[in-house]
Specification:
By secondary structure, the protein is mainly alpha-helical. The chain has a domain at 27-81. 53% of the residues lie in helices and 5% in strands. The chain contains 3 helices and 2 strands; from the N terminus they run ββααα. A two-stranded antiparallel ribbon has the order 1-2. Helix 2 runs antiparallel to helix 3. The longest helix is centred in the middle third of the chain and has 20 residues, at 34-53.
């Protein structure tokens, strides 16, 4: 018997549809790729630098958001499913 399980007169491998894309949902709502996430975090870091250089009130908030984004990405990168 082959590696595919037999169900009735056909095998699961015979009826499987190949996945052409990693994400099958709405393209507008797909998760970020690693490159996109890195660009986003780089942008967040630039916003911190810009707020600090301009002596803006939101510098601490921007720093917090950039830091939490980096920490979340690092934590999630350890879990692959």
């Amino acid at each position: 018997m082959s590696a595919a399980r037999v169900q009735g007169d056909f095998t699961v491998a015979d009826t499987a549809i190949p996945h052409l894309n990693d994400y099958e949902g709405d393209p507008e709502a797909r998760p970020f790729t690693r490159e996109e996430m890195q660009r986003f975090l780089d942008y967040a870091d630039e916003q911190v630098d810009r707020a600090v250089a301009a002596n803006r009130k939101g510098a601490l908030t921007a720093y917090r958001d950039a830091t939490l984004g980096s920490v979340n990405l690092t934590a999630l990168s350890h879990f692959r499913w």
